[in-house]
Write a structure and sequence with these properties.
This protein is about 30% helix and about 25% strand. By secondary structure, it is α+β, with helices and mostly antiparallel strands. It has a single domain, classed as 2-Layer Sandwich (Ribosomal Protein L30, Chain: A), CATH 3.30.1390. The chain has a 3-stranded antiparallel beta sheet with strand order 2-1-3, with no helix packed on it. It is globular.
Length: about 60
């Protein structure tokens, strides 16, 4: 098992975005600009990050 993690930070607001993008942010554990979430680096998480790539940034991938 890999215990790699990825840290993502929300950089933009989901206001005016489609509902699925707002729900994806909630699923990643983000709800305010500047918040960070540390998650396991899995294909599922990478896909969620790709969906909202314009609203978040990858801070640190270990």
């Amino acid at each position: 098992m890999s215990d790699k993690t990825i840290v993502i930070e929300q950089t933009k607001s989901p206001i005016g975005r489609p509902a699925f993008q707002r729900q994806t942010l909630k699923g990643l554990g983000l709800n305010k600009i500047g918040r960070r979430a540390t998650l396991k680096d899995t294909p599922d998480v990478r896909g969620m990050v790709a969906t909202v790539a314009h609203l978040v940034r990858v801070v640190d991938a270990k």
